[in-house]
């Protein structure tokens, strides 16, 4: 049945066998209605310790944005341009803040046992994110195109070889390290961050230990 | 070496040796600042909007 020439009625497109419909239903069910961007939170969230997750996320936005600007000029841009040097410094210090905020976020979540209430996957994605972020930072230091990067690569190769990763992850190959730094690892951080946030919105913010409303 | 130059890595770093543990003053200062930030986040009161609504229950989701 049609409403206008050649246009199906909305209820005629809800066929469950249609994969687009199923995908839309999956998207809509990711987060409970109204929980994607809630304007209000439980009273126990009124504490500075709950702010550090968002501060980490904000720092990540600055890290990615400044990294994109650095990508415009190239890997050696910051050596020859004051503008490039400025954005390199923005990139470095936003990473420093990113890790600082993330570690305080981690401490807070550890001491409130934030894996309670079916939040284990939220906790696990956060820990894996921490690990991948360290790898992203490491490859960033290897991509400085200076003697510091060379020294870090020379010092790091034996450790990487010792864990068996040297065959496919060569820290003495600046081209490979740069591509891991700007493509593969940020993709992993971005996707896991998205999953982490969806899980937080799906299960809600964990209550303090002495206010565990879930028993 | 000035106090600031110990913290902002200019020249060779100053290290503290404590048994098997050795750590640069710069790294120790950063860790100390983060621990201090963590404690402050727990004890500093968070600004609320009690005067606007007056209903704490209303903050529940």
What does this structure look like?
The complex is a heterodimer of chains A (215) and B (61). With 215 residues, chain A is mostly helical. Chain A has helices at residues 19-28, 52-73, 77-80, 82-111, 120-141, 147-162, 174-203, and strands spanning 2-4, 7-8. Chain A has two domains: 47-112; 113-205. Chain A is 62% helix and 2% strand. Chain A is globular, with a radius of gyration of 22 Å. Chain B is of the alpha+beta class and 61 residues long. Chain B has one domain. Chain B has helices at 3-7, 25-43, 50-53, and strands at residues 15-18, 21-24. Chain B has a two-stranded antiparallel ribbon. At the A-B interface, helix 4 of A face helix 2 of B.
What labels would you give this structure?
heterodimer; A: 215 residues; mainly alpha; 2 domains; two-stranded antiparallel ribbon; 62% helix; globular; B: 61 residues; alpha+beta; two-stranded antiparallel sheet; 2 strands; 46% helix; elongated
Topology:
The complex is a heterodimer of chains A (215) and B (61).
Chain A: E1 2-4, E2 7-8, H1 19-28, H2 52-73, H3 77-80, H4 82-111, H5 120-141, H6 147-162, H7 174-203
Antiparallel strand pairs in A: 1-2
Helix pairs in contact in A: 2-4, 4-5, 5-7
Chain B: H1 3-7, E1 15-18, E2 21-24, H2 25-43, H3 50-53
Antiparallel strand pairs in B: 1-2
Main sheet of chain A: which strands, in order across?
1-2
Order of helices and strands of chain A: EEHHHHHHH
Per DSSP E runs of 2 or more residues, the count of β-strands of chain A stands at 2
**What coarse outline of chain A follows from CA principal-axis ratios?**
globular
SSE order of chain B in H/E notation? HEEHH
Number of distinct helices of chain B:
3
In terms of structural class, how would the helical and strand content of chain A be classed?
mainly alpha
Number of helices of chain A: 7
Distance between the termini of chain A: 52 Å
Q: What is the β-strand count of chain B?
A: 2
Radius of gyration of chain B: 21 Å
Summed up, the domain count of chain A is 2
Mean pLDDT metric of chain A: 91
Proportion in β-strands of chain A: under 5%
Through-space gap between termini of chain B: 55 Å
Q: What is the average per-residue confidence, as pLDDT of chain B, rounded to a whole number? A: 78
- The quaternary state of the protein chains shown equals heterodimer
**Strands side by side in the biggest sheet of chain B:** 1-2
Biggest β-sheet description of chain A: 2 strands, antiparallel
* pLDDT < 50 stretches of chain A: none
């Amino acid at each position: 049945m049609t409403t206008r020439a050649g246009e199906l009625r909305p209820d005629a497109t809800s066929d469950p066998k249609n994969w687009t419909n199923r995908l839309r239903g999956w998207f809509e069910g990711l987060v409970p209605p109204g929980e994607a961007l809630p304007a209000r939170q439980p009273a126990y969230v009124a504490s500075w310790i709950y702010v550090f997750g968002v501060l980490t996320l904000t720092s990540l936005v600055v890290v990615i944005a400044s990294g994109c600007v650095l990508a415009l000029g190239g890997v050696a841009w910051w050596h020859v341009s004051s503008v490039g040097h400025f954005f390199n410094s923005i990139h470095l210090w936003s990473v420093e803040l990113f890790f600082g905020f993330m570690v305080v976020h981690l401490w807070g979540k550890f001491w409130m046992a934030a894996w309670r209430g079916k939040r284990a996957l939220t906790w696990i994605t956060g820990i894996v994110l921490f690990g991948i972020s360290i790898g992203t930072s490491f490859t960033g230091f290897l991509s400085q195109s200076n003697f510091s990067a060379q020294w870090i690569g020379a010092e790091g190769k034996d450790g990487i070889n010792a864990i068996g990763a040297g065959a496919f992850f060569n820290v003495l190959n600046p081209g490979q390290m740069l591509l891991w730094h700007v493509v593969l690892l940020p993709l992993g951080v971005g996707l896991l961050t998205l999953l982490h946030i969806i899980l937080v919105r799906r299960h809600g913010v964990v209550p303090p230990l002495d206010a565990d409303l879930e028993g | 070496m000035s106090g600031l130059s110990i913290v902002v890595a200019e020249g060779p770093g100053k290290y503290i040796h404590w048994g098997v543990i050795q750590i640069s003053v710069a790294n120790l200062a950063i860790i100390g600042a983060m621990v201090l930030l963590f404690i402050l986040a727990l004890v500093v009161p968070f600004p609320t909007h009690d005067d606007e609504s007056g209903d704490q229950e209303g903050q529940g989701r």
